[in-house]
């Protein structure tokens, strides 16, 4: 049976520290967006940044405490309903955090490549945010049906698992890979596309305006405002933080899904460390926001 090992204790301690920081900092961002200096952001950006902070708060108040408590108790004591609900909320929080970053990227893409569409930016962003939150609920909903509490035979041990929900191992692997795509690959591809197009556009403008080193100009002759460029930089750093923090964890997950035996040969602290490192992303967003917001 699993136990509350030294590595798990370190994971719990680190997670609790991250929880306190992430909760406080993301709450301050949420307050700032509506009542503080964040009010200087464009009207189309405020709901996006607020949604990002809200998604990070869900990660802070759902994923982190759940992970810490579950590592401490080792087994599941909260019953079948909470097993299903908490697993749903965990995946919902993770999807929402990833999809809001997609909205951030698409917003910057439209702002730089299609500046004339800025008049419709508020309504467009609200629609994209609605889709992001709705998709997060939809994609997390299977958790309500596949997770259940199972009591081990012969011992007093109950766990919240997917055991019995899949007839074959390949079905569970397919399910996990699907969420790997929706949580990581799809957002990553959208981000790469958006920022590649953005930097190609900016690079083209630099070459077109060699004689004017004081500013960047669009093909139509309009100056790209410094505020817009600063927001672009903030978006790039936020997205980079997501990629850097979560890539090792998901790569380890792929390895495990296709080679389950690897868990026996990988030091326990590696699994704990990579998940904690992924959670660090929740703490990075408010720091980046405060650095780039005047």
TrEMBL record:
Record's keyword terms, sorted: Cell membrane, Disulfide bond, G-protein coupled receptor, Membrane, Phosphoprotein, Receptor, Transducer, Transmembrane, Transmembrane helix
GO biological process, one term: cellular response to hormone stimulus
Domain of life the protein comes from: Eukaryota
UniProt-listed Pfam families: 7tm_1
Transmembrane segments: 12-36, 48-68, 88-107, 128-147, 177-196, 236-258, 270-292
Record's subcellular location: Cell membrane
GO molecular function: G protein-coupled receptor activity; peptide binding; protein-hormone receptor activity
Bilayer disposition of the protein: Multi-pass membrane protein
Cellular-component GO terms for this entry: plasma membrane
Domain G-protein coupled receptors family 1 profile stretches: 25-289
InterPro entries reported in the protein's UniProt record: GPCR_Rhodpsn (IPR000276), GPCR_Rhodpsn_7TM (IPR017452), GphnRH_fam_rcpt (IPR001658)
Chief location category: membrane
Keyword Cell division annotated: no
Family statement drawn from the similarity comment of this UniProt entry: Belongs to the G-protein coupled receptor 1 family.
Protein name: Type II GnRH receptor
């Amino acid at each position: 049976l699993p136990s509350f090992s030294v590595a798990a204790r370190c994971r719990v301690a680190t997670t609790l520290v991250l929880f306190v920081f992430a909760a406080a900092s993301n709450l301050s961002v949420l307050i700032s967006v509506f009542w503080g200096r964040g009010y200087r952001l464009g009207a189309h950006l405020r709901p996006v940044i607020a949604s990002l902070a809200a998604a990070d708060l869900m990660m802070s108040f759902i994923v982190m405490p759940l992970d810490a408590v579950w590592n401490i108790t080792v087994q599941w004591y909260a019953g079948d309903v909470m097993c299903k609900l908490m697993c749903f909320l965990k995946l919902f929080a993770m999807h929402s955090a990833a999809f809001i970053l997609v909205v951030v990227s698409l917003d910057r893409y439209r702002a730089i490549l299609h500046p004339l569409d800025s008049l419709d930016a508020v309504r467009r962003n609200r629609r994209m945010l609605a889709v992001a939150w709705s998709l997060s609920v939809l994609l997390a909903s299977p958790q309500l049906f596949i997770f259940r509490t199972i009591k081990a035979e012969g011992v007093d041990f109950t766990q919240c698992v997917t055991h019995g929900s899949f007839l074959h191992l390949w079905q569970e692997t397919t399910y996990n890979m699907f969420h790997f795509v929706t949580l990581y690959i799809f957002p990553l591809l959208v981000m790469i596309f958006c920022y590649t197009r953005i930097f190609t556009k900016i690079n083209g403008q630099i070459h077109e305006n060699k004689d004017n080193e004081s500013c960047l100009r669009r093909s139509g002759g309009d100056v790209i405002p410094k505020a817009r460029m600063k927001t672009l930089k903030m978006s790039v750093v936020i997205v980079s933080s997501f990629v850097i923090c979560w890539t090792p964890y998901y790569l380890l997950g792929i390895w495990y899904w296709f080679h389950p035996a690897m868990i026996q040969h990988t030091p326990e602290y590696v699994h704990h460390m990579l998940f904690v490192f992924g959670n660090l992303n929740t703490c990075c967003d408010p720091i980046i926001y405060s650095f780039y917001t005047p």
